[in-house]
Write a structure and sequence with these properties.
The complex is a heterodimer of chains A (405) and B (260). Chain A is an alpha/beta fold and 405 residues long. Chain A contains 11 helices and 22 strands. Classes of the chains: A alpha/beta (405), B alpha/beta (260). The interface between A and B is large, with 113 and 97 residues.
Chain lengths: 405, 260
């Protein structure tokens, strides 16, 4: 595998040099022409492909992989979804994955299935899986699967995936999904792409194309897993719409009794610490009202909470407010906090540093309230209000309360 | 305690800008840094060493310039560093990276704990930490916000979406940490001078018996087929007028968009 610059196509424009994060490309003089040639230092090059993209106009750079293996993967069939459950309830992200999974299954002309792990009572939830479109539900029953633990879940799901050989396996990019998928992929030899924001099927090759942000959201990458099965991907909550619900829809229930070994049980759950200030899972919230440094002090989060309440939404926070101890870290939105994509995100007194933006810029509608007209938050805001949040937030709250009657 | 910390040298993605003409990334002049979450991992390791004694070794898989990131860690006060570098590793996805790091760790002999940052700010996958745990067949605990270690086991508090969870794991294990766990110390002057003088040891693919089928571009189950920059944000509408008017218009727009 290698990377090559085609001298006859290279115009010496230097776009590739500028695109390389590893300073691996230099322009060198060549005979017979004043135009310099891009030369790639293979010791520094990580084959990330940024230069190939930068040279889209001239296509002078190409990464050559060795020929793909010709192993026959046609016996892998089915689009499967991990039905994440917490405290016996299937999480909304599972229904979002079923919605997208159905489209993929249709393209691939195959079935859509869900994998649900839990204790005895979890069987009650199966009806929801069929209602949201699963043709099959694989129920993995075991006392040790009642609550999520990395090793037992990896063991059980690896077993069912190896036995039934789906071609695609999707999980929510939640703390559970990310913890599980990463280990599971290595266990079963699958290719895994994290945090996908787009999934589609290559019409010719009939493989999954996975699109996701990288570089803190500054670029998008499309990734494939051509030779390994299943093709695994995690998807963040709220990226896809929930499947339409059809109560009473039927499907095939397949019960599976996984073998859990003693060595899978070495990590023990000691305690769950609830955060009383957290009423709603931020990553699942449809509406979020966030407070930033501009709110001035901890007690002013009360204003943010009231507006959130009037909208039926959750409270978010910038890192500055969390670091200052004004609110707990579970509310933090941003690069080192949570990534959210609600229908409505209202940023109050938040300047919009890039570390915050990467956590919320995919929100459907963004409203920004800030005294500073040059605050970077206004660049991503759908609607911007240059003004004092202490004036606008209570006013907005009052208006919404009036509407509710 | 023998602690190994896996770090990555990354471009500072918060400094990256987009060229407005070509809509491509301008990576020129973007500083290379130790992945911020990995700095938290190094700090956690140093704190554990201060409490329990032992040794902190920092390793990284990367091109030769990744040695700079290792020097930063030396300047923070770690005992040893190791660069795992080979042209054969170029193009590695998380499968190949976690395999390579696991092979290198096997070469280091006895260890009690492996610490990693939750994720790298360029790849953003959070997959390598758990991958290493699986290759080494040891437990993993992710999203750690507090670590208490004793002989042969650790109590770890994990930060989940709505709650925190406290688990107990036997050691050795892999623990990945989030930013909220600590405030990384700044390199000391003495540390920086020591780092400057230290020659960085490098291990290549053969030195760690990394299998060709599990490293580099060809050892990677996933392949990047396209990189593109998302369409630029056009910036929205600034609502103007008297406060009450603005609020009325905003509420109307929210209703229009069927949000409420």
């Amino acid at each position: 595998m290698s990377i090559v610059v085609y001298p006859d196509k290279c115009t010496g424009c230097t776009l590739c040099v500028k695109a390389c994060a590893f300073k691996a490309i230099e322009m060198k003089a060549r005979e017979g022409t004043p135009r310099k040639l891009a030369v790639i230092d293979l010791d520094k090059c990580t084959l990330c492909g940024a230069c190939v993209d930068a040279c889209a106009k001239f296509q002078a750079i190409e990464i050559k992989a060795e020929k793909e293996s010709s192993s026959d993967l046609s016996h892998y069939k089915g689009v499967w979804v991990f039905a994440e459950q917490r405290e016996g309830k299937i999480q909304p992200v599972a229904y979002e994955l079923l919605g997208e999974g159905r489209k993929l299954a249709q393209e691939l002309k195959t079935d859509l299935a869900a994998v649900l792990c839990g204790g005895e009572e979890i069987e009650e939830e199966v009806a929801h899986l069929f209602a949201y479109g699963a043709d099959k539900a694989y129920l993995l029953h075991h006392d040790e699967l009642k609550d999520y633990k990395s090793l037992p879940y990896t063991r059980a799901i690896a077993e069912v995936l190896t036995k039934h050989k789906p071609e695609v396996f999707l999980l929510g990019a939640t703390t559970m999904g990310r913890d599980l998928a990463a280990r599971l992929a290595i266990r079963i030899g699958a290719g895994l792409t994290a945090d996908c924001t787009g999934l589609d099927i290559d019409p010719e090759k009939k493989i999954l194309r996975q699109t996701r942000p990288a570089f803190g959201g500054n670029i998008m990458a499309t990734i494939i897993s051509p030779n390994n099965r299943p093709q695994m991907a995690t998807v963040r909550p709220k990226v896809f719409r929930k499947a339409d619900k059809q109560d009473g829809r039927k499907g095939e229930l397949i019960k599976f009794n996984p073998v859990i070994n003693p060595e899978d049980l070495v990590v023990k759950l000691i305690e769950v610490i609830k955060d009383e200030s957290v009423k709603v899972n931020l990553t699942e919230a449809e509406i979020i009202v966030s407070g930033g440094r501009g709110i001035g002090e901890a007690k002013n989060f009360a204003l943010i909470e009231e507006l959130a309440k009037a909208l039926g939404g959750a409270v978010g926070a910038s890192r500055a407010t969390v670091d200052a101890g004004w609110i707990s870290a579970h509310h933090q939105v941003g690069q080192t906090g949570k990534t959210v994509a609600p229908k409505l995100y209202i940023a109050c007194g938040i300047s919009g540093k890039i570390q915050h933006l990467v956590g919320m810029q995919s929100s459907n509608t963004i409203v920004a309230i800030n005294k500073d007209p040059d605050a970077p938050i206004f660049k991503v805001a759908t609607y911007g209000i240059v003004g004092d949040l202490f004036e606008y937030v209570p006013l907005l709250t009052k208006k919404l309360q009036e509407l509710r009657g | 305690m023998n602690i190994i910390v896996c770090i990555k040298q990354v471009p500072d993605t918060t400094e990256v800008k987009i060229n407005p003409e070509t809509n491509t990334l301008i990576r020129e002049g973007v500083p290379s840094i130790v992945n911020p979450f990995d700095e938290n991992a190094v700090e956690a390791a140093l704190k554990l060493k201060e409490k329990h004694g032992g040794k902190v070794t920092v390793i990284t898989m990367g091109p030769p310039q990744a040695a700079e990131a290792l020097k930063t860690c030396l300047a923070m006060g770690v005992d040893e560093v190791l660069l795992i570098s080979d042209r054969a590793f170029a193009g590695s996805d998380t499968w190949a990276t976690s395999h390579t790091l696991a092979q290198a760790i096997k070469k280091l002999g006895q260890f009690d704990l492996i610490l990693c940052g939750k994720q790298a700010i360029d790849g953003d996958t959070a997959q390598v930490g758990p991958g290493i745990a699986e290759w080494l067949n040891i437990p993993q605990v992710t999203f750690a916000v507090k670590i208490e270690a004793e002989e042969k086991k650790a109590k770890v508090e994990r930060m989940l979406e709505e709650v925190n969870e406290v688990v107990e794991t036997p050691l050795p294990a892999v623990i990945t940490v989030v930013k909220q766990i600590n405030e990384p110390r700044l390199p000391s002057l003495k540390g920086m001078m020591r780092a400057k003088k230290t020659e960085i040891k490098t291990l290549k693919a053969d030195d760690i018996q990394a299998e060709a089928k599990n490293i580099g571009l060809n050892g990677s189950p996933t392949q990047v087929v396209k990189i593109f920059t998302p369409p630029p944000k056009s910036g929205g509408e600034k609502l103007e007028g008297e406060a009450n008017e603005i609020v009325d218009r905003l509420v109307a727009k929210i209703k229009e968009r069927k949000i409420i």
